[in-house]
Write a sequence for this structure.
């Protein structure tokens, strides 16, 4: 995998997909995917209104990606900054999901998490696993991150499989907002992807 930081945006190259920073033109597709029952069943709270999603994208997500990228380029601590990346098919540049990293307050420190979602039309093709592995490799090679977390609802078999395929190790089960999750961790020194 190749992870160049380019002046026009951060790109994380994977096998069949690439990760790139969110763009304004992603809004409609992002909104459409978050309203798929297969997505919001496992990602409570992601099915926001179009107006909320637009506000988040413009006011928080895109600017915070810029701050994250600036911190990495300056060799600074990324702290609590989030990185939100679109999962894009190489063959046609279609936005099919997202892979993000940020702080999960409900987890004990160090609590940087990897999270993801993919359209129902692109499941079971290995794209999510490629995205997570690409994000993990980027974070471990280009930031000061030493430990990554992932959580998945205990009922979300597909997500639990992705996490395990990416070499995360089970830590415990936790409850967040009355929902049971499996909690996993991956340490930099374990050797990743």
């Amino acid at each position: 995998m190749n992870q160049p930081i380019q002046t026009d945006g951060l790109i994380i190259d994977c096998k069949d997909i690439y990760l790139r920073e969110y763009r304004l033109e992603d809004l409609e597709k992002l909104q459409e995917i978050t309203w798929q029952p297969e997505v919001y069943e496992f990602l409570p709270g992601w099915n926001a209104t179009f107006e909320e999603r637009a506000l988040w994208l413009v006011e928080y997500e895109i600017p915070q990606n810029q701050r994250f990228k600036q911190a990495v380029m300056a060799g600074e601590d990324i702290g609590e900054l989030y990185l939100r990346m679109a999962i894009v098919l190489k063959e046609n540049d279609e936005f099919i999901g997202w892979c993000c990293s940020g702080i999960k307050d409900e987890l004990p420190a160090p609590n940087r998490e990897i999270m993801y979602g993919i359209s129902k039309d692109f499941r079971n093709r290995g794209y999510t696993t490629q995205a997570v592995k690409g994000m993990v490799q980027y974070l471990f090679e280009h930031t000061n991150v030493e430990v990554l977390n992932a959580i998945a609802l205990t009922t979300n078999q597909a997500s639990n499989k992705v996490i395990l395929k990416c070499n995360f190790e089970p830590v415990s089960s936790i409850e967040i907002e009355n929902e049971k999750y499996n909690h996993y961790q991956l340490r930099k020194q374990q050797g990743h992807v």
About this structure: The first strand starts at residue 5 and ends at 6. Helices lie at 27-34, 37-40, 50-73, 127-142, 157-165.
